[in-house]
Amino acid sequence: MQDTQVEDKDRFLEAILSSMGDGVLVTDSFGKLLFMNPKAELLTGWHKADAVNMPFETVFPLIESPSGRRVENPIAKALKAGVPVGLKNYTALVTASKKPMFISASCSPIYSGSSAIGVVVVFRDIDRIKLIEEEIRKEKDNLKNVFEALPIGIMLVEADFTVKWLNKPLLELFHTTEQQLLNRRFGDGVCCKNSLLKGCGRQDSCIECELQKYISDALKNRVSQKNLIVQRTFIFDKTPKDLWLKLSFIPMNGLIEQAVVAVEDITEQKEYENALQKSRDESASANRIKSEFIANMSHEIRTPLNGIIGMMELLINSGLNDEQVEYIRLAKMSADTLLKVIGNILDFSRIESGSVTLSNIPFDFALLMDELFKMHEALALQKGLSFKASLDPNIPRVLKGDPDRLRQVLNNLLGNAIKFTDSGEVSVALTCAGLSKTAADVEFVISDTGIGISKEKMDLLFKRFSQADGSSTRRHSGAGLGLAISKQLVELMGGSIKAESAIGKGSTFKLKIEFQYDCKKPLNEKEQLNKAQPSILTDSGELGIFRKQEQIVILESPGQDEGGGIHFNSNCELYAKPKMQANTASEGTLEALLSLAESVEALKGTDFSHIEETAHRLKIAALGAGELLLGEKAFKAELLSRKGRFVDAFNLCLSIAKEVNARFKEDENEDFNS
């Protein structure tokens, strides 16, 4: 009965071993194989009948991979140690088919009482695991090689700011070693200046450390931060050195809070940027000083030059003979040209320094164009040229903008067209390119049949101090600033300018500028024009200026009969005084000029609110009387008043009045002596 129970237990034990998923081998104390379960047969390739009573090393030969060296018999080691022993990593079993197989195994001695009577070996196939480990190892090596090849430092930092991994570029950047930095706080390992006394993160200044702050933020918020710039001082060979660092922080997913920190040294770039900024500042300062110098020199040159021109004007009217007058006129022409060049240089320096401000006031666009057309038509006729001008009636009459700068641009373009045209015609056409409720796009097309410009020279047109004809024998003078200034002024007004030309076929300049206007009233109503020209329609009983129907009347003195005085129509055209109508027009307009000049004194001591009106009327009266020089002065006074320089405008008007009065006294003395 007892033998039967033993046999049943043996069969039960064998059934258990046979059903195991791991291979099981049993040897005696001499290493002879006593038992092999089915899984062991499958893994080793040996049949149980052939393997039993064979030496263990024959059935279960072990080698070390990849060297192929035989591994010490684990049976002997287990019996000698008296405790279970395992196999080294990368130990392979050579199967019956001579194919290596990575295995893991546990060899445990079998005791009977206190004596070891054998060994049981439990093993399993780990080929798949080893292949995965090998792939991971290769990927890890490849990744490490990539990190080592990067031109920036990379480190893995934990929440306590200790460095757990790093690459060589990081060590080279901070002149340190892996032993000094690994598993230490970053500041301690790289000799941060703030960490010298108490250690990284333990000094008061460490509270403001951007590196610790950014790492904490990245780990806390789990959000990457890139391209953050910090400056830190480090001690290299006992010498402090400031470094500019660009940092990026990427939190890692895992049970341990870690962040990848990329560190790039941008000190050289920062030093270059600082040097460049310093150079820019010095250049800007030099440009400012240059602009101030040019402005001051232009002013200093223009002042005596204006005096010279004024004396020439007096000389012309001082009774010289025809030959002397011609010489003076030629000299004055040269002086005027020089004054224009100086004015251009001053304008350009102001534009270049950004000190030009444009006004935005209502002005009579049609009247301004009419003045420009008449002036340049006269200049064209002097050269025997045909002058054609057209104004689109769809353009609103009253626009908002800077009339002075617009006049400057158009004067330059029309003047150039006439200067560079020897025969044929000059034409200017203004069209309404677009009209909304508040804005009008006006296109200016100025064409001539002049000498033209070659395609190779077109790029020079709008560049400063450049001309299409740069030869020393060129026929036409100029500093090469006019078009450059015009282009910049047009762009400041929000417009555009372009040119088309061909040698011998003339040139065409096209401008497009947007002007604002008030469309609340019909554009052809006189009320809108009156509103846009308060300088013409302002009433002032104190100064004897009032409106009578469609006329403007300036009395010689307040309280005078309204039938007298100086009369202007709505277009600023001067009427002769009634008592002078029987005389010649020249005498009448000269008398009107005298009366107007005498009224200038009435403005003294006021707020000069009417100085622009007075200057404008002086201009019209002087031109009507044929006094072109006086008209030019009055025009300058009008421009000065528009720019807010009321005192200068008044003084100029006062000088005109004195000159007119002095001239009348001379005429009266001559009449008396005769």
In brief:
The protein is an alpha+beta fold. The protein starts with a helix and ends with a helix.
Q: What key attributes describe this structure?
A:
674 residues, alpha+beta, 7-stranded antiparallel sheet, 5-stranded antiparallel sheet, 23% strand
Describe what this molecule looks like in 3D.
The protein is of the alpha+beta class and 674 residues long. Helix content is 45%, strand content 23%. It is built from 21 helices and 23 strands. The strands form 5 sheets. Strands 1, 2, 3, 4, 5, 6 and 7 form a 7-stranded antiparallel beta sheet that branches. A 5-stranded antiparallel beta sheet has the order 9-8-12-11-10, with helices on both faces. A hairpin with a 2-residue loop joins strand 10 and strand 11. The longest helix is centred in the middle third of the chain and has 50 residues. The protein is rod-shaped. The termini are far apart.
Find the structural class using helix and strand composition: alpha+beta
Poorly predicted sequence stretches spanning 5 or more consecutive residues: 470-479, 521-552, 554-560, 567-586
What is the first-to-last residue Cα distance?
179 Å
User: Largest beta sheet, briefly?
Assistant: 7 strands, antiparallel
Number of helices: 21
| Shape label | rod-shaped
Instruction: Give the strand tally.
Output: 23
Mean pLDDT: 76
Helix content: 40-55%
Portion of residues in beta strands equals: 15-25%
The value of Rg in angstroms is 51 Å
